[in-house]
Amino acid sequence: MELHDASHALSALSQTSRLELFRLLVISGDEGMPAGQISTELDIPKPTLSFHLKELSTAGLILAERHGRSITYKINIEGIRELMEFLTEDCCQGRPDLCNLSNNSFNTLPTNLL
Amino acid sequence: MELHDASHALSALSQTSRLELFRLLVISGDEGMPAGQISTELDIPKPTLSFHLKELSTAGLILAERHGRSITYKINIEGIRELMEFLTEDCCQGRPDLCNLSNNSFNTLPTNLL
DNA sequence: CATGTAATTCCATGCATGTAGAATTAACAA
DNA sequence: TTGTTAATTCTACATGCATGGAATTACATG
Question: What are the Cα distances from residue A6, in Å, to A83, B5, B72, B75, B79?
Answer without folding.
Answer: 6, 19, 26, 19, 19
